[in-house]
Amino acid sequence: MIKFLVRIITVTLIVSISLYYFQPQSIFYKNDLKRIQENNRVTFVTRLGPTTYYEIKNKKFGYHYSIMREFADFLGVDLSVKVVSNITDAKKMLELRDADIISGWNVTNTNSDIKTGYPYNRVDYVIISKSNIARRSNIEDKLLENDIHTIESQVISNSDSIKEKKPKYSYKVWRDKNIDDLLKMLYDDEIMFLFMSSDEFKILSKYYRDIKIVQKHSVNEAEYWILPDNIGPEMQNKISDFFNYMIENNKLAIIYQNFFGQQQHTFVGSKIFINDLVEIFPTYEFFFKEASKLFDFDWRLIASVGYQESRWRKDAVSYTGVKGIMMLTKDTAREVGVEDRIDPKNSIFGGAKYLRSIYNRIDYELDENEKKWFAIAAYNIGLGHVEDAIKLAAKNGTQINKWSDIEPYILMLSQSEYYRQTKYGYARGWETVKYVQNIKQYYDILIFLDSQDKEVDEKDQEIPKTL
């Protein structure tokens, strides 16, 4: 009997040890949720990009980031975001639990080492080129003759199949570049075709007006979080609860609309601007001119910034959470002493005060007529990023005297080769270049119209005979 019990105990120990060493790791990570709650932190790993994750004025933004932020709030824990340049590193972090969830990559769940979450967004994938290429009658031949360049995505291998009777194109996958890098290569004629999501195209085509869709590659592809294959059931259930909550409260649709529904930083055209100048501007003209006197800044410039930011709508709200005519952030409003960002006078005075403070902090030797454009760029992107661009120019031996000198280096802030050399990292430089360009156009119109008014005021004109 004793021998039998010893045998049973021995077998039990052997089985226990075997289970310990050879069972899937999920036995040890079955309560990921508890671990996250105890650490008071959920960690995502993602990539930098115009739709995923970026910073403006030390604040984090991005469509996919906004959903990460909502999830952290739903759990009641802090959010940590780690950035890598390729999916291999991201999956390794997931495996080691250096990250809990991957966001911002399209990876299929055919691999046994991952699971996919709820498909919270769907996009088309498109092949784009510059417009002069897209117009060619032999475009199909060009597609067959040239590589289509893309960042990592398994969508291309799934949908471009022989059974669908599509030509088998050749793809060049870049694991060390982002979509901004490839777009720069396209504009420099280093490549002919680029592969991207329809959401990326929605954002980028507003600033790069010369890119056109050549062909839709695939439609209605799901975007979802990537989870460890051995994720605990509690965490999976919590993620399901979260997306149910987001759908029931229409939050997914609202976040999407905020990022992709608004026409950010597009020039509205002279006709619309003049119409708004007649119908809206007179309500706030006094405030702009008083702010000009108080902070020693051309009222036409302040008004142009206000129009670019909000089209002079006092109740305007951006996808980044900024509000009012001058679109002040909470931190900026606090810095300039504004309590009510929606109040037109407070907003205009606060924006002018902030613009003056930025201007005063730019201590580089610049032409005074040009310095204002550096301040306006910083109003949009943050002074840190502008300083990064100036330092990039200095490294390249470029003397910065005017805005056009720095523009190429502002654009470099979105390219991995350059932003990795900077203090403040990735920025949507193309957005800032367009922002300044638009304000210059509004400013020129205001200067012209104001000069015409002065000429009329200075002349004691008779009523025209035609009237």
In angstroms, what is the radius of gyration? 27 Å
Stretches where pLDDT falls below 50 for ≥5 residues? 15-29, 159-165, 458-467
In percent, how helical is the residue content?
Answer: 40-55%
Gross morphology: globular
Strand content: 5-15%
| CATH architectural name of the largest domain | Orthogonal Bundle
Question: What is the CATH first-level class name of the largest domain?
Answer: Mainly Alpha
What distance separates the N and C termini?
A: 124 Å
Strand order of the largest sheet: 9-8-10-7-11
What is the mean predicted local confidence, pLDDT? 86
Which fold name is given in CATH as the topology of the largest domain?
Lysozyme
- Major β-sheet annotation: 5 strands, mixed
The count of strands amounts to 12
Q: How many domain modules?
A: 3
Structural class assignment: alpha/beta
Number of helices: 21
Provide an overview of this structure.
This protein has 467 residues and is an alpha/beta fold. It is 52% helix and 13% strand. It is built from 21 helices and twelve strands. It has a five-stranded mixed sheet with strand order 9-8-10-7-11. The chain has a three-stranded parallel sheet with strand order 4-1-5, with helices on both faces. Strands 2-3 form a two-stranded antiparallel ribbon. α13 (281-295) crosses α14 (299-310), α17 (368-381) packs across α18 (383-395) and α19 (403-412) packs antiparallel against α21 (429-458). The longest helix has 30 residues, at 429-458. The radius of gyration is 27 Å and the shape is globular. The N and C termini lie far apart (124 Å). Residues 15-29, 159-165 and 458-467 have low confidence and may be disordered.
